[in-house]
Structure prediction request, 101 residues.
Amino acid sequence: MDQLMSNDLDGVSRLTKDVIRHTLPLWYARTGLNELEMGILQGKLLSIWSSPVSTIYVWLLILIISLIVFSFRKLQKCIGLAQIVHFLVQLFVVMNFGGVL
Prediction:
């Protein structure tokens, strides 16, 4: 039983690391950060990944980064904000429950 739960947590951890690796460059492109700054922040995010509790912190950080990025663009009107929230909710559901909305 413990091995089964451990395998599930490892899968969530790998999936979250992939999300960080693939989505952060898109957000950085909008903020104008250079590659060195992007690499440093991405490395720090991946290095804090040591326990399931850190999942909450990573998701909060991703939410804060996305809100900052999109607040500079005046939240892309209401439709854009709804799409962003829907995307983040989908990522959260996939990460924690393995389902898709």
Residues 2-31 form the longest helix (30 residues). The chain is about 80% helix and 0% strand. Confidence is low (pLDDT under 50) at residues 1-9.
